[in-house]
Amino acid sequence: MPDVARTDYGPLLERIAADIAPLIGSGTPAEYIPALASVDRRQFGMAVADLDGNVFGVGDWRVPFSAQSITKVFALALALAEGGDSLWERVGREPSGNPFNSLVQLEYENGIPRNPFINAGALVVTDRLQTLTGDASSELLEFLRQESQNPDIGFDAEVAASEQEHGDRNAAVAHFMASYGNIDNPVPALLEHYFWQCSIEMSCADLARAGRFLARHGLRADGTRLLTRSEAKQINAVMLTCGTYDAAGEFAYRVGLPGKSGVGGGIVAVVPGQCTLAVWSPGLDARGNSVAGVAALDRFTTLTGLSVF
């Protein structure tokens, strides 16, 4: 893998934006969350954060958007940092092959979610973080502010309310897992923290900075260690195999990087030992991933030769 950590990524990002321009506006914003359905699908931004703290961007890379499921990566990191590997007794590490909000596998597998990035698994992680910290959503928000070096990152109350109003399936999943003893906190409180977590707004610049600890093998922005190298590797591995809903195999084939997408149209991706990328475009494909975002990351790995393979 070439050493490009000190490269000026600006011209590369401009080329990528030009290459994928015909795809910007393709797809459909997340219509099942009304607060997201009205977002202008013609927006596109991309950022790269290198290991030295430099950030390069193109397009709408400084525009905040709803991070949604991307926050699951950071909640998982905090839960592992605070509580260790015992978390894996409550959630698996295998691709699900089913939609992210499916109930089907939980019944077959006694309330143990397949991985921490489907909704059931993310609820277990948030539940664990709530037990460990007493305030899961606020703990996550403060962590993201510190790692992104942006104290203005915050929750979007409209999105959180929209999630709550249309969160019946998440409530069903949580109650179902509670019936198997895999949820420790009261389900209503857990759901509230989960919906606030998903409502966090960040820009591509924020996400690229915040995710650098995964490219730095567990080291935070201030140089302290959040995760062991092994734990950072574990998260990157689960991102690669499970991070883009039930299209993770296609994403690994096309992009070849650990990545986590959200239905707000964002994707964060990691080149271990090199840099972190974030891309945003609200138009989603049938599996909930940004059409232009996946294409942009595909072009990045094609043009740079950077991947984990």
UniProtKB/TrEMBL annotation:
Pfam families (alphabetical): Glutaminase
- Binding, substrate: 69, 119, 163, 170, 194, 245, 263
**For this protein, what is the EC number?**
3.5.1.2
Catalysis performed (reactions): L-glutamine + H2O = L-glutamate + NH4(+)
Q: Which InterPro entries match?
A: Beta-lactam/transpept-like, Glutaminase
Tell me where on the tree of life, at the top rank, the source sits.
Bacteria
Keywords, comma-separated and alphabetical: Acetylation, Hydrolase
User: Enzyme class, one word?
Assistant: hydrolase
Entry's family note: Belongs to the glutaminase family.
Assembly notes: Homotetramer.
Q: What is this protein called in UniProt? A: Glutaminase
